[in-house]
From TrEMBL:
Higher taxonomy: Eukaryota, Fungi, Dikarya, Basidiomycota, Agaricomycotina
Any matching Pfam family: adh_short
Family the UniProt entry places it in: Belongs to the short-chain dehydrogenases/reductases (SDR) family.
Protein name listed in UniProt: Short-chain dehydrogenase/reductase family protein
Entries under InterPro entries matching the protein: NAD(P)-bd_dom_sf, SDR_fam, SDR_oxidoreductase
GO molecular function terms listed in the Swiss-Prot or TrEMBL record: oxidoreductase activity
Keywords of the record: Oxidoreductase
Keyword Oxidoreductase: yes
Species the sequence originates in: Mycena sanguinolenta
Entries under Gene3D superfamilies matching the protein: NAD(P)-binding Rossmann-like Domain
Length: 258
């Protein structure tokens, strides 16, 4: 284990109670990072604290004002944050029609607006320091362009692949069941039944993430699909959409003012 020093980079990670967040925090500590680990239930972070992490209670669905106070508190611990990892989130299963508006909004408040508010709370500090990297799962394109002049990098690390974590076991189902959606239901049942047999190794994934975001002198992409199956599925996704664009190009173009 490499001991952290006052010159060691600081990494803040959300959603560290289990899974990728917890393992990434542990690896960063082993490599000598100064780690700020967060979770809603701070007692779940006891093991990380024993290893040397600073721990903070944090709910990404809190109000923007509350999150701003959290960011100020986190920044004051070491006087800097060099890497912000927005990891908190969860899967909501079922056909769209089977999820109530309330269930959908709860997920959006966690996975989207929580990420947005957390990153925005740290941006004033990043701009002033003119050096930071943020790993986010959406909005990267816009942030990357807006923050380029401040040397703040935003990277979307896309993890749609299958890794042996607790994600499948903790997937939330919509409260409504519509029998006609047999294919969608089977997809979820099969997904959860395969939990523990996924091909993706989370230990390899967290090493790849930490190596990637800390590599110096490399032109970072806007997004990085993580996982063998993620690479193939996203490649297929984009190629299918490009094929659709070309197929219906005649319907898309030719609408400029004469």
């Amino acid at each position: 284990m490499t001991s952290a020093s006052r010159s060691s980079p600081v990494i803040l990670i959300t959603g560290c109670s289990k899974g990728f967040g917890r393992e990434l925090s542990a690896l960063a500590l082993e490599r000598g990072f100064r780690v700020i680990a967060t979770a809603r239930a701070v007692e779940t972070l006891a093991a990380l604290k024993e290893k040397g992490a600073e721990i903070l209670p944090f709910d990404v669905t809190a109000s923007p004002d509350t999150i701003a106070v959290f960011a100020a508190t986190a920044w004051q611990i070491y006087g800097q944050v060099d890497f912000l990892i927005n990891n908190a989130g969860y899967l909501q299963g079922g056909a769209i029609e089977e999820n109530t508006l309330e269930e959908t909004m709860v997920q959006f408040n966690t996975n989207l607006f929580g990420l947005l508010n957390t990153t925005n709370a740290f941006l004033p500090y990043f701009r002033k320091r003119r050096a930071a990297r943020a790993a986010v799962d959406s909005l990267s394109d816009t942030w990357a362009k807006e923050l380029a002049e401040f040397n703040v990098k935003c990277i979307s690390i896309q993890v749609p692949g299958q890794f042996r974590t607790t994600v499948a076991a903790t997937l939330r189902r919509g409260s409504c069941r519509i029998p006609e959606y047999t294919a969608a239901d089977k997809l979820i049942v099969d997904y959860q039944a395969a939990s523990g047999t996924e091909l993706g190794d989370p230990a390899k994934a967290i090493v790849r993430i930490l190596d990637f975001i800390t590599t110096e002198g490399m032109d970072l992409p806007l997004r990085l699909p993580l996982g063998d199956d993620a690479y193939e599925s996203l490649k297929r996704f984009y190629l299918e959409r490009l094929a659709d664009m070309e197929k219906f190009k005649a319907w898309s173009v030719g609408t400029n003012v004469d």
